[in-house]
TrEMBL record:
It is found in: Membrane. It comes from Brevibacterium paucivorans. It is a multi-pass membrane protein. Keywords: Membrane, Transmembrane, Transmembrane helix. This is DoxX family protein. Coiled coil: none annotated. It comes from the Bacteria.
């Protein structure tokens, strides 16, 4: 099984996800605008928090447990691929899409690749 060769990469991604959770508990304007632009019902916003907390926990646990960080990182990449698809479907391709959505997809993808090299 696989353990990250450089533990700071999954730890960094986990930190970014947890910071996103903190900003999303009472969504700051750019996060609220992003969620509203893809027409995600407000009653479902809490699900995104749970997914991100679980992903961060998996990334951290995976520093010591073989395969867990890899699976969590793949899950984060898939999550942001779905977010990209949602934005494109909703024609919500403004600045939030380019910075937040694609930025997180690129970050999580790069960390995945660098972690397995």
């Amino acid at each position: 099984m696989w353990i990250p060769s450089f533990w700071l990469l999954p730890a960094f991604l986990a930190t970014v996800l947890l910071a996103d959770v903190v900003l999303s508990i009472r969504p700051v304007r750019f996060i609220r605008d992003c969620l509203e632009s893809v027409r995600l019902p407000e009653d479902w916003w809490w699900v995104l928090l749970v997914v991100k907390v679980l992903a961060a926990a998996g990334l951290i646990a995976g520093i010591w447990i073989p395969g867990v960080a890899f699976a969590a990182n793949v899950g984060v990449v898939v999550y942001f691929l779905c977010a990209v698809a949602s934005h494109i479907r909703a024609k919500a391709t403004g600045i939030a899409f380019w910075l937040n959505c694609l930025g997180m997809l690129i970050l999580s993808s790069v960390i995945l690749v660098l972690s397995i090299v």
